[in-house]
Design brief:
Length: about 850
């Protein structure tokens, strides 16, 4: 057995590294995080120095057992998790668990860090181990605690004041604010009219564009001409000055020639990689990071798996000297020595604390060109690798050189009232880095009027004015954020860190706070309401400066300049005081953003639009009226802040009576809780593709016919007098009486079952609620229990049900139902705590697991933790 045990995060990485280290090393994967906060309130106790209570993740229990078994036969443990704060924290948690079990007695423990998965890098890292960095662990711990405290206090408040299932996060909420504010800018934007005067000149059989530069001696600005009357007057004056009756003539007044340089962009950081992948490849941030992870962990190019790029979570733009030398050599070989920069280009990181890695994202070997990987790996991986390779190689190439020329042409005589037009041109003299790579832009810009080659001209030459026109324009609102521009804005404001951008965007989409329209973010109605609630009542905590300052404090913790509890102390008391105040003083009606649209012509009652439990709706009347108010949900695409009284009245045309079936049953079209449908008699058929406001009688009859055919195929046998049916279900045939469901023995034909056999099978079947285990029973028991019954089963605390259960984390593993770092802690409506459900299924296994858990406590060595309890919402 190997004397050395190496632990990495993913099995793909383990397989590659094992090949490099040889027989003396065993390499196993932790499969991401091994331990997390307990999924309930009290996991972080502000009253006890922010003590944090952890538990082993159920999904990774068997992987920890495998590591412990391998460790018994090894002499040394090498913790080789990712080289960022999160990786450092994973290594620390694993060490704490193994130490508490006694598995590390007599073993040497080392921390190794590498930024690329190549033979030389791995062997060098193992040859130069270090100890765990508690500063990095502390910074991750503080971030985790902050996200937990925000999520477990702010999200339940949103449940109470807006609707269930919502969430608020420390980093997610400022990002939502950014998107909503841009939408408000667009809504408030007033377009301004302006006119430009443009023409065409010709000299020596070559034509070129012209633009008015001066009119009557004054410089022409964007809003110099704001209406057609002014623009036409200018056009006539210039034509007259140029003698345009027969075409017109201009005179060259001055020629300005210059050379312009353009330098290459630095190699990729996490942020710029996500931006460029969105612009050039159409990848969203999550997809980009998933593919980059695969390139980093290794791909098989025919001689075994090899890591193709360096670590992909970084905010550094620097490159190792060895890498720069190889890149320059490859560029000289492929493009010529003249296209390589004279001296190595040194890029410096603008970030105050580029803590995530030592280098920018680059190919592990520039000698592996995109052509060599094309066809050997998946197409998306190949395209992303080509992007990274080209950017890194271009960063060490020479500048691009342009010859530019500006020609000023006079219409009429020179003097204080002169009219001047200008022609711009440029020629690419030396492509340099542009032969390999050009950086993209987020938004379409106006065409570059200098991108023309002008004919040779000299001062005093005559130029024909062949065309002149006044063109109308209107100013445009700022564009909505794309993924690329949002990531750029987050980075500029200092919100989040390299590992968080993708998850911020994913959370906003998963919570349905935003939707995509032409690959741009548009806030939904619920997103706007949540943003207004947070910006009005928790303005300080969604301020861009506050979030950035908090990130700076966490950076200070990572550098050892500040205790990890310091930012928590500053944050907690003002925050929880505000939460408790808003819970007491703000009503649900105040938050719902109700807006009165007008009066119902028939009754005179007010008509308002507001947010409800199942989404936005319009309402006729109020809860104080004698008659119950009427409600109608908004149609897809309708927005609360744009709907009018006329739109609202259309919504109350449902239910629509369409006609009758062939059997005389009335057919109605309507919208219910689960979407649009048609009702015939006492039965329903969903409208999956049709609009209930426009569906015709003929189409409704067709939908009903298809529904009846599906029902007929579903019913194998029917005993209507007894209320018993034999049905085809999702998992095969079964018997039901609407109270119980019974399986049919495999040796029995469902079509041949008798009524007595069906009764017998139903009698032996469990109650339908029992299929949910003790949770289903407990729910019924709690409902039926007497009001004063002591010891009756209690439903879990609201805060214990948290969102994120079952979703994949940024590290590709299933997240425990707790507030994820940099995400939110919103509860999922029907989710039960995973750990407790697991305990119900396997009590013995859980008991053994509990005995193996590391004691909860602070990061610094402390006495065993007392049972603390975090403050909870009333």
């Amino acid at each position: 057995m190997a004397d050395n045990l190496v632990i990495v995060e993913s099995p793909a990485k383990a397989k590659t590294i094992k090949k490099y280290l040889g027989r003396d090393f065993e390499v196993l994967a932790s499969y991401g995080h091994v331990r997390d906060l307990v999924p309930k309130e009290g996991a972080v106790d502000p009253d006890d120095g922010f003590r944090m209570k952890y538990q082993l993740l159920d999904k990774n229990e068997r992987h920890v057992e495998a590591i412990a078994r391998a460790l018994h036969k090894a002499k040394a443990l090498y913790l080789a998790t990712d080289p960022d704060r999160e990786g450092e924290a994973i290594a620390w948690h694993l060490k704490e668990i193994l130490q508490a079990r006694g598995d590390l007695d007599g073993k040497d423990v080392h921390r190794v860090v590498f930024y690329e998965i190549t033979r030389n890098a791995i062997r060098a890292a193992v040859g130069q181990p270090r100890g765990l960095s508690l500063e990095l662990v502390n910074a991750q711990q503080a971030r985790r605690a902050l996200d937990y405290l925000v999520g477990f206090n702010l999200s339940p408040l949103l449940w109470k004041k807006v609707r269930r299932g919502l969430s608020a996060g420390r980093v997610q909420s400022p990002a939502l604010r950014m998107i909503c504010e841009r939408e408000e800018e667009i809504g408030a934007f007033l377009a301004q009219e302006y006119w430009t005067i443009e023409g065409e000149g010709a000299h020596g059989e070559q034509s070129f564009p012209l633009k008015l530069l001066e009119y009557r001696g004054g410089k022409v600005e964007q809003f110099s001409f704001t209406n057609e009357t002014e623009a036409r007057e200018v056009e006539r004056a210039i034509r007259a000055a140029a003698g345009a009756a027969g075409g017109g003539e201009l005179r060259v007044l001055a020629i300005d020639r210059k050379q312009r340089r353009r330098n290459p962009a630095p190699p990729f950081t996490t942020s710029t990689l996500q931006q460029e992948a969105a612009r050039k490849l159409g990848f969203n941030a999550r997809r980009t990071m998933r593919l980059a992870q695969q390139l980093y962990e290794g791909q098989d190019l025919g001689e075994g798996s090899v890591g193709l790029i360096t670590y992909m979570r970084t905010d550094s733009v620097s490159l190792a000297a060895e890498a720069v030398g190889e890149i320059r050599a490859v560029a000289a070989r492929l493009y010529g020595q003249q296209e390589v920069a004279e001296e190595p280009r040194i890029y410096k990181t603008k970030s105050k604390n580029a803590q995530e890695a030592h280098e920018a994202i680059r190919p592990t070997s520039a000698a592996i060109t995109p052509a060599e990987v094309e066809g050997r790996i998946e197409d998306d991986l190949s395209r992303l690798y080509a992007l990274i390779w080209k950017r890194a190689v271009a960063s060490q190439m020479s500048h691009a050189l342009f010859d530019t020329v500006a020609v000023d042409l006079l219409a009429g005589p020179d003097g204080a009232q002169r009219h001047l037009l200008r022609a711009n041109g440029s020629t690419l003299v030396k492509p340099g880095f542009m032969s390999v790579y050009q950086e993209g832009t987020d938004d379409a810009l106006a065409a570059d009027d200098s991108d023309h080659v002008l004919p040779p001209m000299s001062e005093g030459d005559a130029v024909q004015l062949t065309a002149l026109a006044a063109n109308q324009h209107f100013t445009e609102p700022p564009p909505r954020y794309s993924e690329a521009s949002l990531v750029k804005a987050l980075e500029e404001h200092g919100i989040g860190r390299p590992s968080t951008y993708a998850s911020i965007i994913s959370t906003l989409q998963d919570r349905e706070y935003v939707e995509m329209d032409s690959r741009r973010f548009v806030p939904t109605d619920i997103g706007k309401i949540v943003n207004r609630f947070l910006t009005h009542h928790f303005h300080r905590y969604v301020e861009y400066g506050f979030t950035a300052a908090m990130e700076d404090e966490l950076d200070a913790v990572s550098r050892g300049e500040e205790e990890w509890t310091t930012p928590l102390d500053k944050f907690w008391k003002p925050f929880i005081h505000q939460v408790e105040k808003i819970e007491r003083t703000v009503t649900r009606e105040q938050v719902a953003q109700a807006r009165e649209l007008g009066r119902d012509p028939a009754t005179g009652k007010p008509i308002a639009v507001r947010m409800g439990r199942y989404g936005p709706f319009v309402q006729i009347g109020t809860k104080d009226d004698e008659e119950k108010p009427r409600f109608a949900g908004l149609r897809p695409g309708q927005k609360m802040d744009a709907i009018t009284l006329a739109d609202a009245m259309e919504l109350f045309k449902l239910p629509r009576t369409l006609g009758e079936t062939a059997h005389g049953e009335t057919i109605l079209a309507n919208v219910g809780r689960f979407g649009p449908y048609v009702k015939y008699g006492s039965k329903y058929a969903s409208l999956k593709e049709d609009d209930p406001y426009t569906v015709t009688l003929e189409r409704a009859r067709e939908v009903i016919r298809l529904k009846q055919e599906a029902d007929a195929n579903r019913i194998i046998q029917d005993f209507p007098a007894e209320g018993i049916q034999v049905l085809n279900g999702r998992y095969g045939p079964y018997i039901t009486d609407r109270k119980k469901n019974a399986k049919i023995p495999k040796d029995r034909d469902p079509k041949a079952l008798t009524l007595e056999e069906c009764r017998a099978l139903l009698a032996a079947a469990p109650e339908r609620g029992a299929r949910f285990g003790r949770w289903g029973k407990g729910k019924r028991a709690a409902t039926a229990a007497p009001a004063d019954g002591a010891g009756a089963p209690q439903a879990p605390a609201t805060g214990a049900r948290v969102a994120g259960a079952g979703r994949k984390s940024a590290r590709g593993v299933r997240a425990q139902p707790v507030a994820a770092a940099h995400l939110s802690a919103a509860p999922a409506p029907a989710a039960k705590p995973k750990a407790e459900a697991h305990a119900a299924r396997k009590p013995r296994a859980r008991a053994r697991s509990a005995a193996r858990k590391a004691p909860a406590g602070k990061l610094r060595p402390t006495a065993p933790a007392a049972n603390g309890r975090a403050r909870r919402l009333k």
